[in-house]
Specification:
single chain, mainly alpha, putative deoxyguanosinetriphosphate triphosphohydrolase fold, HD/PDEase_dom, Deoxyguanosinetriphosphate triphosphohydrolase-like protein, about 55% helix
Length: about 400
């Protein structure tokens, strides 16, 4: 098969005509498959638009070129569609999961998630996958007959399980337990938390890793946190940079970095395709059911590439996520969310009117979760504005 050509629909992909349906029954669309309809609902949701003003890794520097959750999600979707096309999967479902995977992230990147997890520690903590499920099942208010987006079972399954099963086959949860939002929803609409997700969801998860690694390198270079030649400490990136320098000996660093990112994405996509092809040939799944009931995921990096990818993550952790500039800003960002959470707890009337209604009848845990939902939906910019409204002093975060 030529590179770029779509494979014929594979028997192990999800068939939109055989979807397990929606929690609230709806008449089918005359013009769109159930999975295309899901994707369109995600794109038109308020939570998706807010991703434009939520940072991917919270690094403020000159210019508007660093990633946001929105641009990252679009990049994940591009990689995921490329993989799905080659494997003969349903591209609409794959795109839905790629675009929805960050809907539950709070403002200020990883700092925001850590802050909310601490604020909600006594009430089940904070998990961005569980929050994404809340967004698409209850927090979006766009339709007259239901809260949420009423996505198909396959889309909800992929949002929850794209990183693998959450329980053993007997239902026993791991050490961390099942995130509270997922456990509660699963009682209403069984997502089979013990099984693997569809290949479409597995592809979306690896597309996230590929886009994250490559584009954090790009953002780190743009922010001046490290230089292209600093990446030579890893054999994979050293080899790619060496090839770039041989072909383009006089290339400036900005173009060297961009070429490195492109080549890294291509290399990782090829690696996933190779390993998925090997595993599919061995497992011979004949349906999406076979995929879900297989003893291991069928999409993965080959072992040597998994080690190379882990080395990239370790490099980024040390040189980007733990960089003193980033750590300072992240610490201040966490403080902003701690302040907001405590203020709303002590003075619920400071919440917008639509978020105050009914709070007097709530338990402490329910009120804390409501506040957490409100803060998680904030953009970086709105969290700063809200802090400025409620407090005398707000960090500059630069």
């Amino acid at each position: 098969m030529s590179v770029g050509m779509a494979a014929p629909r594979a028997p192990y992909g999800c068939d939109p005509d055989s979807s397990r349906g929606r929690l609230f029954a709806e008449p089918p669309s005359r013009t769109r498959s159930p999975f295309r309809r899901d994707c369109d609902r995600v794109i038109h949701s308020t939570a998706f638009r807010r991703l434009k003003h939520k940072t991917q890794v919270f690094v403020f520097h000159e210019g508007d070129h660093y990633r946001t959750r929105l641009t990252h999600s679009l990049e994940v979707a591009q990689v995921a569609r490329a993989l799905a096309r080659q494997l003969g999967l349903d591209e609409d479902l794959t795109e839905t999961l790629a675009l929805a995977h960050d809907l539950g992230h709070p403002p200020f990147g990883h700092a925001g998630e850590r802050a909310l997890d601490k604020c909600l520690a006594a009430h089940g903590g904070f998990d961005h996958n569980a929050q994404a499920l809340r967004v698409v099942t209850s927090l979006e208010h766009r339709y007259p007959d239901f809260d949420g987006l009423n996505l198909t079972w396959e889309s909800l399954e992929g949002i929850v399980k794209h990183n693998g099963p959450l329980t053993a086959r007997d239902g026993a949860a791991g050490e961390g337990g099942i995130p509270i939002g997922i456990a509660e929803f699963n009682q209403k609409f069984d997502l089979e938390l013990w099984s693997y997700a569809s290949l479409e969801a597995q592809v979306a998860a690896f597309a996230d890793d590929i886009a994250y690694d490559a584009h954090d390198i790009d953002d780190g270079l743009r922010a001046g946190l490290f230089a292209v030649d600093d990446l030579k400490v890893m054999p994979l990136t050293e080899a790619i940079i060496g090839e770039i320098d041989r072909h383009y000996p006089h290339l400036d660093d900005a173009r060297r970095g961009a070429e490195l990112v492109r080549e890294l994405i291509s290399y990782m996509i090829g690696a996933v395709m190779s390993e998925a092809g090997r595993r599919l040939a061995a497992a011979k799944p004949q349906s999406a059911h076979d995929v879900r009931h297989h003893h291991q995921p069928l999409v993965a990096f080959p072992p040597d590439v998994a080690e190379e990818e882990a080395a990239i993550k370790a490099f980024l952790k040390l040189h980007m996520y733990r960089h003193h500039r980033v750590m300072r800003v992240m610490g201040e960002a966490e403080g902003i969310l701690f302040d907001l959470f405590a203020r709303y707890q002590s003075s619920p009337g400071d919440l917008p009117a639509e978020w105050v209604e009914g709070t007097e009848r709530e338990t402490e845990g329910e009120r804390a979760r409501r506040i957490g939902n409100f803060i998680a939906g904030m953009t970086d910019r709105f969290a700063l504005i809200e802090h400025q409204r409620l407090f005398d002093s707000t960090p500059d975060l630069r």
